[in-house]
Structures are given as C-alpha cells and as structure tokens.
C-alpha cells in the first residue's frame, strides 16, 4: 500500500477496508493516468474510472456548478416567485451564472396573464467587468403571450462558464404578466435601504422597438429587482 493511502486510512479509518485500499492502489499504479477521475463503488466492490470530466455526475461538482441536463438554468439565489407586468418596449436583463461549459436548446418564460396577439422577444447577452449586460450573444426570436403557459424559443447555443444576462422585451402594453424572481440575496448586491436585492437591469426603448435586439445592450441602465424570469434549458455539457 502506498504511503498516501496508508495515511488516508489512518486519518479517515474504516472508510475502506485494507483490501479495498490495496485494490485502489494497485489499479492506480497499473492503470492510472494523470488527470483520471476514480472512485470506489461499494455496491459492486470495485474501482470505477470516469474517463472524462464531462462524464462527471452533477453531484460530484461544487455546489455552484450543479445543474442537470434537461433542467432549466436561471437567476441564482431566488427566494420566491411573483408576477411582473410587461411594460411596453422595456428591455429587461436578468443576471445569471453559467456554472460550466454547456449547450442550451430552449429559452423560456412563464406567461401568467395573457395578451392576445402580443409577443415577447428573448435573448442572451454577455456580462462585462462591471456586471452589466454588454454584447449580444444571441437574439432568440419571439414567443407568444396569447396563452397562459410556459413558452419557449428553440435555440442551439454553446455557452462557456461565466456570467450572462437573459433579455426580454414585449409589445404588450401593461397587460401580459410573466413570472419574476424575488431574490433574497444577489451577486449584484442590495439597494441603499438594504431591503431589496437586485436581479438585473432594464432600459426603456423608444417606441416602437420590438424588432431585433440591440447590440450592444443600451447604456444608462436602471438597476432593478423586478426583472421577469427567463430560463435556459441545458442540452448537454461541453
């Protein structure tokens, strides 16, 4: 048994039997390659090797890197959900953290009050060093607010680990409502009263302004805690 494994067995006794440690030790000596991920599977009584980091289950990652394929990624630290009236031609940007390199295939909002014949345009923006939305990553097109439903635009976009903003703008004049996150804590901080955590920004656009999303995101922004909830569905890990 190697000195390292002997030390581990002393510091953390009874985690593995001596025979199990020796099996792990022998496998690493015979087959181990620098950068391999290995773990002991107690159910089968054998050492398992994970060939690539992308094969790691989400539960093996740091808490802030956890996300499951097929689930939706949105603003971190959400406390509860409320509803938000969509002011006409107001461009909202919701701050999100992409925890690892991945590809998304849906961008979605939850319409809680309909407005027949109206739409909401969705998009993804980069985040600059000042934690504000900057260049456009993808204009995702429009979704309908005609029905009360979770509505999605189909996309296929690779994103590297980092900070982004999810944008939404609508031609609904104060009728359509979307779910919005009420943040209990935020990476953007709190306002001067220490009662409201910011979830993003908005910028009122000159009417009519519901076509292609601007690139870059407009300047002179208003920080806000009432940004509608927009989410991305994780297709795969890259």
How would you portray this structure in words?
The protein is mainly beta. The chain folds into 2 domains: 3-51, no CATH class; 67-237, Jelly Rolls, CATH 2.60.120. It contains 2 helices and 14 strands. Strands 3, 4, 6, 9, 11 and 14 form a 6-stranded antiparallel β-sheet that branches. Strands 8-7-10-5-12-13 form a 6-stranded antiparallel β-sheet, with no helix packed on it. The longest helix has 14 residues, at 18-31. The two termini are 37 Å apart. Residues 1-14 and 52-59 have low confidence and may be disordered.
Topology:
Layout: H1 3-11, H2 18-31, E1 37-41, E2 46-50, E3 72-73, E4 78-85, E5 90-98, E6 102-113, E7 119-127, E8 133-144, E9 149-159, E10 162-170, E11 177-183, E12 200-204, E13 222-224, E14 231-237
Antiparallel strand pairs: 1-2, 3-14, 4-11, 5-10, 5-12, 6-9, 6-11, 6-14, 7-8, 7-10, 12-13
